[in-house]
């Protein structure tokens, strides 16, 4: 049992269970982010993962953080390596075995879910798909269907601004100051969690979403965005997207 695993599990154990009527603005959150060998779940793998337990009453200073560097036992895509800075040599020397590290990440997420603490990830489908694929790859227990907060889905629904919606651009829009460099799993996780407070301030309807409403609200928001985006793609003679949200 690694120290970060023990620390996060103890913090979750001490956290009060949240009710279905808990509002997003008041909810504890478990931020999640990964860096990977590439973008294809099942073929590529996680090389870095970060979990950040956030109590909104305590804010950033009260965060409980866990970080893992993982030996994926497969090669880095050179383009991914350029983005996240990881190399095959570094991961082979410093990475934990995935059977232990990936299992710890999943067990912490499952523990938080029993307290109805949502898993928050920016573009959540990517990170959850990567984790699910790695769990399958290493013969580990799958995740239960999680309660999720996706700031990207929320932002598309409430902000009609034009331009890119990467995590970096979105944090700039909401006035979030990053704690570290982007494409570092910990810095990205904290930045994504930090978005909920200004989103709830600028758009009070976001903060008033209850945990019971959360998943359906985001699924509906994603479908509305997809319909609009596909209309734009069609106007450009491009193929529509067929993705679904969680």
TrEMBL record:
GO cellular component entries: cytosol
Organism: Bifidobacterium aemilianum
The entry's keywords: Exonuclease, Hydrolase, Nuclease
UniProt entry tagged with the keyword 4Fe-4S: no
Record-linked SMART domains: EXOIII (SM00479)
Protein name: DNA polymerase III subunit epsilon
Domain annotation Exonuclease: ranges: 28-205
Pfam families, per database record: RNase_T (PF00929)
Alphabetical list of InterPro entries matching this protein: Ribonucl_H, RNaseH-like_sf, RNaseH_sf
Organismal lineage: Bacteria, Bacillati, Actinomycetota, Actinomycetes, Bifidobacteriales
């Amino acid at each position: 049992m690694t120290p970060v695993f023990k620390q996060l599990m103890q913090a979750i154990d001490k956290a009060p269970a949240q009710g279905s009527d808990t509002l997003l603005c008041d909810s504890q959150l478990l931020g999640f982010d990964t860096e990977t060998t590439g973008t294809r779940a099942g073929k590529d793998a996680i090389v870095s993962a970060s979990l950040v337990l956030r109590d909104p009453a305590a804010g950033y200073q009260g965060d409980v953080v866990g970080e893992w560097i993982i030996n994926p036992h497969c090669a880095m895509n050179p383009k991914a390596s350029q983005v996240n800075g990881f190399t095959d040599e570094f991961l082979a020397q410093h990475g934990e075995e995935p059977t232990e590290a990936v299992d710890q990440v999943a067990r912490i997420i499952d523990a938080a879910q029993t307290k109805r603490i949502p898993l928050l990830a920016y573009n959540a489908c990517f990170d959850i798909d990567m984790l699910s694929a790695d769990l399958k790859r290493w013969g580990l227990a799958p995740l239960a269907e999680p309660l999720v907060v996706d700031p990207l889905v929320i932002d598309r629904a409430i902000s009609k601004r034009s331009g890119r919606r990467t995590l970096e651009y979105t944090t700039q829009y909401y006035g979030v100051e990053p704690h570290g460099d982007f494409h570092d799993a910990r810095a990205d996780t904290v930045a994504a969690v930090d978005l909920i407070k200004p989103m709830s301030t600028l758009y009070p309807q976001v903060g008033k979403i209850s945990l019971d409403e959360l998943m359906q609200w985001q699924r509906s928001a994603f479908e509305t965005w997809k319909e609009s985006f596909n209309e734009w793609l069609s106007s450009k003679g491009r193929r529509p997207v067929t993705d679904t949200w969680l």
